[in-house]
Structure formats: structure tokens, C-alpha cells
Specification:
alpha+beta; 6-stranded antiparallel β-sheet; globular; 3 helices; single chain
Length: about 190
């Protein structure tokens, strides 16, 4: 009888431990879930850190792309980029003086935060645009300029007059461009 009681007690004890083990496994799973939540949070922080790093890499890539565009004279932007990322130049200034007024346009890349201004006083107009409004206007114009620092003055004038839809009966025309490759163009015709 002692053997039976001892055997029965062993079975009950084993069952009790097994039952306790299930509770511990359940708690262990819950702890695992908590660890997973913490690991997910750490992963998100790492992703944010990687995104910061990627942002730097993207800026370096943009600079490289702009240098390549300047070397190739390619003003077309790649899909998904902002239109100004495909320009070969970092600064552009146009001043066209006519008998009845003046047309001025300025653009600056400004490390990926472009700024622009447009003034048009021809034909009795008094148009002044700046900021996003001017950038929206130039978005349709500047990518058409496939110029390089090697472009001749007459090529610059022809391209600018066509892109900006300006008359060629100006009194004075001045175009200044600073390219990403370090080159500059300062073309003036009086």
C-alpha cells in the first residue's frame, strides 16, 4: 500500500508540476510577447536612425546626380524626385529689359530647399511672385534649359528666350548661372 500511495503521490506531484509548468509557459509566452514589443520598439528606433543615415546618403546621392547632370547637360529629373533635383545648375538669374518694362527671374537650389522670385513689369503688368508660387511657375520652365557651363552665350540666350517665352526685341538681356560642377555662365547682351 505504501508503494501505491507513493506511486499515486508521484503521479499527482508530476501532474501538479506539469500544470505549473503550463502556467509558467503561458507566462513565458507573455514575457516573450513583452520582449517582442520591446524588440519592435528597438527596431523602430533603429529604423529611424537608419532613415536619418539614409537621409544623408540621399542628399549625397542628389549631389552626385546633380554633378552627373551638370557633366551630361541633362536637365531631366528622375521619377520620384522633385523637379529641381534634375537641374544641372544651383543658381539661375535672368534679367530682360524691354522698352515697356522688365522681366526678372531668380532661382536658388539652396541645398534642396529652393527659393525663387519672378517680377514682370512688361506691358503695364506688375506681377511679383515669390516662394512656392514662383517655384510652381519655374517648374514648367527651368527643366527645359539643357545648358552646361560650356554653353556659348548665343546658345544660352536662345534657350532662355524660348523656355521663358520672351520676345527677342529686348534692350538688354543678362543671364547668370552657377552649375553644380563649379562652372559659371555670365552672358550679357545689350
Amino acid at each position: 500500500m505504501k508503494k501505491f500511495t507513493l506511486s499515486a503521490g508521484t503521479v499527482v506531484l508530476a501532474a501538479g508540476l506539469a500544470a505549473c509548468g503550463e502556467d509558467e509557459n503561458t507566462d513565458y509566452t507573455d514575457n516573450e510577447g513583452a520582449e517582442n514589443v520591446m524588440n519592435n520598439e528597438l527596431a523602430e528606433e533603429n529604423d529611424m536612425d537608419n532613415n536619418d543615415t539614409n537621409g544623408i546618403t540621399d542628399n549625397e546621392d542628389n549631389y552626385t546626380n546633380n554633378e552627373e547632370n551638370a557633366e551630361n547637360g541633362n536637365a531631366a529629373s528622375e521619377a520620384g524626385d522633385d523637379w529641381y533635383e534634375g537641374l544641372a545648375f544651383s543658381e539661375f538669374e535672368l534679367d530682360a529689359e524691354y522698352e515697356d518694362g522688365e522681366y526678372e527671374a531668380e532661382y536658388e537650389y539652396n541645398d534642396g530647399n529652393p527659393e525663387a522670385e519672378i517680377e514682370d513689369t512688361r506691358d503695364g503688368n506688375d506681377v511679383e511672385m515669390e516662394g512656392q508660387e514662383a517655384l510652381d511657375e519655374l517648374e514648367q520652365i527651368l527643366p527645359q534649359l539643357e545648358l552646361t557651363s560650356e554653353s556659348r552665350d548665343d546658345e544660352v540666350f536662345e534657350a532662355v528666350l524660348a523656355a521663358f517665352d520672351l520676345e527677342d526685341d529686348y534692350d538688354e538681356l543678362e543671364v547668370e548661372i552657377e552649375f553644380f560642377d563649379g562652372g559659371e555662365t555670365d552672358a550679357e547682351d545689350e
